[in-house]
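#help-structures
NK: newbie question, is this the right format to request a structure? protein is ABC transporter ATP-binding protein
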Amino acid sequence: AAGRVTGVVSQQAIAEAVRAAHAAAGTTEDTGDGRADKAGVAP
């Protein structure tokens, strides 16, 4: 991220935005464990 991000809420908001962007691009699936796995492949 550009600059320093402080506060859990801000970090969660950024993480949600990233997951949403990836989901919209069809490149990831949110496994619900806080990680979006590429092509839906489990780590």
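mod (FA): yep, format's fine, and the tokens are attached above. The beta strands are 28-30, 36-38.
NK: thank you!
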